[in-house]
Each structure stands twice: as C-alpha cells, then as structure tokens.
Fold these 2 entries.
Entry 1:
Amino acid sequence: MRLKSFYGQNMTEAMRSVREALGDNAIIVATRDDEMGGVRVTAAIEESTTASPAQKPSFSPSPDQEGSEAIELIATALLQHQVTHDLAERLLATATQFASEDPLLALGAAMDTHFKFFPLPDEGGGKPLMFVGPPGAGKTLCAAKLATKATLAQKKLTVIGTDTQRAGGMAQLAAFTRLLKKDMMEIEDTHALQDVVSIQPEGTLVLIDTAGCNPFLDTDCQHLAALIKASGADPVLVLPADMDSFEAIDMAQAFAKLGARRLLPTRLDMTRRVGGLLRTAFESRLPLCHFSASPNVTEAPQPMNPVSLARLVLPKEIVQNTKTEVRSA
C-alpha cells in the first residue's frame, strides 16, 4: 500500500489533490490541521490500482466518485468538530468501507463499529434509574424530562430525591413534580431509600435524582456508592457535552468504577463541537444512551444510536437532505 500526504488551504483543496494524484480509489487515512496552516490529508492506495504517470485518473461520475465525496464530507466534519487524530483515523477507515452510500449511513456505520450504545428503557419494572454526575451537569432536569414523558404516556412513575444536604437541593425537582401532579419522595438515609424502592408496584418507572458528586473525593464517592447499593439502581452518568474532554474522561472512568453503566450527555444545544464528547465516550467505553439538547422540560432526552450520533457531526444541510432511516442500536 502506498501512502502520501497532501496539503491544501482547506479540506476541499486537499481532497482535490488526493483525487488528482491517486484517483477515486484512494483511502483517506488521516486528516489534521497543518502546523504551517491549512489542512494535511494522508491518503493510501494499493500499488496495483495506482495510475501510471501516463494515465490520468478519470473523473467521470461513478460509484467510486460518489464514495470519495462522502468521505470528503465526513473528513471535513470530523476536522471541524476537532475529533482527535487517532479516533478520526478509525472512523474514516470504517466509513470508507461504506463510502458508496450516503455520508450519514457511512458515518453511522463507523459510529456503530467504534462506540457502544445502551438506550434507557421506555418501560418500568426493571432497575430504578439513578442520575449521577458532577454538580451542574443536568441530572435533575434529565430526571424531570423523563418524568414528564412517562406522565404524558400515563405510565406508573415514582420520583425520588436524595439531595437533602444542599440548601434548596430538592426545590427544583419538587417544582417539576408539582406541575406533573406527582408526589416526590424525599429520602434522607439509605435505609429509607431501600424501603421505598422495595414497595413500588410492579411495572413502575422509578427515577432517582442525586446531589452533585465529586468523584475524586472519597466522602462523596462513599455516599453515592451507598445510595446505589441501597436502591439497586442502574446509575446513569450525566455529563455536559461541552466539558473539557480530559476532565470528562477522568470523571467518566471514576463514575464507572462506582457502577455507572450509561453516559447521557447534556447541553448539546449549546455545544458546537462534539469532538470532546466522542473522545470521552470512546476512551471511557461507557455506552451512550440518550442525549439532552434543550432546557425545556417537555422535550425528553432523545435516544442515542449510531445514526443520531452521526447526525450530530455532519452539517445540517447534509443531514436534512438524507432520507436514511434511523435504526435502533
């Protein structure tokens, strides 16, 4: 396999150089900003398919040409979202195998290969869902959103608040539940939490809100671990999508040790680049479940699957013009 780097003032110019030199069968290996300015693209092609100097690659419309355009769109999007070099290489290498399809399907297939997905259950009857995370991540709002969705669907619901130490810790969740005409159960100790969970009728969706936890502080971790054990809950880690990825990865790994099995990113309505989110999910290996992209309590978190994750990366005009069906993960 022959590899070569190409330079351009932007991604379009660099990709044009790739096509002119290597033809439409070139495989994009990596894209990155060049130290001297502009963009650098590393491409590869099998020696047997390399055009000789006397042969000029054909640019007539063909499936390969269409695939090259799809990969170019994906590479540009990954660069704009500041996806890390190693992860972008993996995604592009996988997407290239599906490049004859539209960009959304190709990138969705790459997301399906390199990320895990574990959606939240729509029905009750399983383990309670406990929302955990650092202060200000959006745990209470996510609990309220899911409570609203369950209430509108006329499902059996119990909402439990455990943030009794912080002044006003229960006020926000209590205000939401009053609007839904639901009672919120305030729990002050782990024994009470265990008893409340044990008496819930079969098929009840149990949502447990928790106080902000510093996963690097032993006392906070011990308190949260006790709540998880007493309730038998399935902890859902809530993290802002615009959080520094280095901090987010450390937090995700710390919460995973406490039992978190899912990652629910928030503030996606205020996040313009999701490269940090992708890095956090990829390196922590926590499955993505849903995502929140609105401060409105009536807009429930949306399921995260390979295609919906790809939609967050690709330009809106590409997504809107694509009629790819979203498949469940």
Entry 2:
Amino acid sequence: MRLLLATFFALFSACSCTTATEPTPDKLLFAFEDEGEVKAWAPLVLPKGPKEPAPKIERATDKAGKHSLKVTFAGGTWPTIATTKIPGDWMPWETFKADVTVSRDCVIGFMVMQEGSSRAPGWDGSVSRWCKTAFLHPGTHTISAALHPNEWSAIRTKFQNGRVMGKCVSLEFFVYSPHDGDVVYLDNIRLIVKKESPPAPAKIEFTVLGTDLKVNGVRDLGKKFADQWKELPATTATDAEAAFKTRFAEIKKQHPNAVLAIFRDGEAGYDPADPKKVFAGWKDAYWSSHGPDGANTDRAANRGKVATEEVFMRHRSPLFRVDVSSIPKGAKILAAEFLLVRAGQPGKEENAKRANMWVAEACNRPWVEDEVNTYWFAKDKFWKETGGMDWLGDDPDFLPIYLAHGPGREGCNVWDFTEAVKFWTDGKHANHGFMLHGDSKDWFKAYFREAEKIKDRPALLVVYEAK
C-alpha cells in the first residue's frame, strides 16, 4: 500500500510540473519582415469628424533591421494609420515599445482602442483609450510606455463606471500636423512583460525674485507663506490704478524725475515722449495641457484671440507678454504692479478667500499669440515637453525663475511686478513674457487684452527714473 501511494504521489508531482502555467513571454507584434504585416495597416478613416489626408504605407529596407514600415504623410492635423491585427487581451503585458525614426522635430503617438473605447474629445472619451505621445528630434528612438500606469489612462478590463471595456480592437499611429512629404519609419512594435520603472523626475528649484528663496514649485512657495496670508480686500482696476498713482506721487518726493507708464492695450499713457500714443503691446494666449495623453483637441487648440479664459494651475493657465521696450535703457525701476481683472463669479471650491499663491513663471521661447498650444510655441517650433514643462539645461522652454509672486484677490488682482520689470529691462534677459499659474487654492476667469472694455484689460503700471 505504501509503495502504491508513493508511486501515486510521484506521478502526481510529475504531472503537476509538466502542466504548470508557463510565464507569459514578450510578444513581437510587428517587425515588418513579412509583407503581410505591412498589408495589415491602412489609413484610418473615421465616419465623423474632419477627413485627414491619407498617409502612404509601404515596406522599406533602408532603416534598422531588414525591413520597416515606411509611412509618408500628406499633411493634415492628426493623420493616422491603424491595424486590427493585434491580440485581444493586452493585460498580461506591462510595457509597450516601438522603434520610430523621424527626419525632423515632431510629435508622434500610438493609441489602442478597446471595444468600450470612445473617440469623444472630453474627459470620459479620453480616458477610455490608451495613448502615448512623444516629442522627437531627428533620428531613431525607442518609444516605451506603461500599458497600465493608473486607473484613468490604461488598458483595462473595466471602465471607471464599471462598464466592461472588452477586447483591444485596434492599434493606431499618428503624427501631429505633419508636412506634406514627411516620412516616418516604424519597426519592432512589441509588448513586454516586465514593468519598467519610469525615470526619477529631475529636481527643479525655482528662484523667487525679490527673495532669497528657492522652491520646488508654486505649492511649495504657497506653503512657506501660508501662515502669513491674510484675505486681501476686493478692489477694481480703477481703484487699484488710483492707489498706484497715489504711490507714484509719494515716490516723486524722493525721485523728482520719476515717470509713470501705464501699459494697457487701447490706452495712451505709456510713452512720456508721446503721451497721446495708444499702447498695443500686450499678447496673451491660453491652452490646456490637462491629461490624459493623446491626440487631444484641447491640447492642439490655440486660444490667442479670446476675451476671457481661465487662470488656474500650471497645466491650465495663460501666457502673457507686455512690451516694455519704451522704458529707456538703464532706467531705474522704482515700482511696478500687474493688474488682472476677474471675469464672472469666483469658484465655489477655489477662490481668493482662502490662503493662495500665484507666480509669474518666466518663458524662454518667442511664442506666437495665435499659434501657441500644448505642442508648439509657434507653428512647427515644438516645446521640448508637453506645455513647455521643461526647465533644464542651457536652453529650457521656461526658466526656473518666478518673476513675481503673491496672493490673489476678488475683483481685480494686483501683483507686485517690480522685480519682473527689472528682469526684462536689465539688458541681460530677453522678454518672452510669463505664464501665470497658482497652487490650486484659487481659480478664476480673467479678462484678456481682447476684452471689450479697456479698463478690463490686463495692465502693467510702472514707475521708473531714466538716467
């Protein structure tokens, strides 16, 4: 009996070993060594929305590997190619990889649609599909992206509301606003079992002008001043300007040659040499870099000709620039204030009645008002990162410098911009304006330079003394 039992368990163990689940291997989806892999791809044509020029697809032999997929674009905004020849279940793999070769700076992207995915442009539609975009320079790059990075930007079995997402039904590749004739090569598209850890974010320290502080962001700055915060009284642009003129009169007592300049579009008073000359030197534009990643219409939209728009956090705030070149070289800047009028009612959860902090972050690119968006600061001139969120190296998109800071208030915001104007007029720095953004404690819509009423438009008030 014991011998029979021993034999039974030995056989059971051997059987268990041979039928154990094998680990999932990495999977090569496309290497384009077979002509059939090329034929599996075709230009994406959607039943709704604008029609994109169809890219040309062919197999190439002049790039990495024996063959690759050559995609020749014919212009458009989001021209896309797609394949349905993919596994239905991508849950066993953690990482997507592909080799991409480009000949000029561009933004490319891969997207996976599931049965439950939507192409709607809003939040619900965007989070229902997986997407990875990348800013590329000329050359060959290996794109790597997590397939299940979080609950709202992943390939998954169920959506946020419990809706079953179903199988993966298509893999798509697109380029943002390519030129007619642009060529991109794809190769070695693969799924990797191993979950790759993203690189640790670089440590950024922002210098806060007018102080000896260095902070890691606006929230850090807000925390440092939170115990000193007091609710500022609401004001209007008219009252704020009157208060500054009173301050100017006091400055004149110590600086008899001091000059007051008011920089507001549509209004005279900025050039002492020509007091009747009307100012037209403001620029402002808004875009949203809000996630998730993807061929997002909000990210590509330019809002450089709007009368009002929101001002909020770094990924949802405007750029401003004011031309102060009329201030004589070498002038001593004695005082300056930036006025920004709120439009509409304050937010219910975020408003100026709670401790808050705003900063003016120095831009380092010559952005174009009616072209700038999340992807580029001017047509075909790309940021290094989405929304210009790059502060590193000798030529960053934005300088790690806060030109000005302070809390907001109801009615008309008033921020001390003395250090900012000094920065723009010291002869050492280019004036590419600034992004105004906050620590999320306050939110509002502001009037921009296109506002109908002149007094609602942004204004920079400066007192200076020429040599």
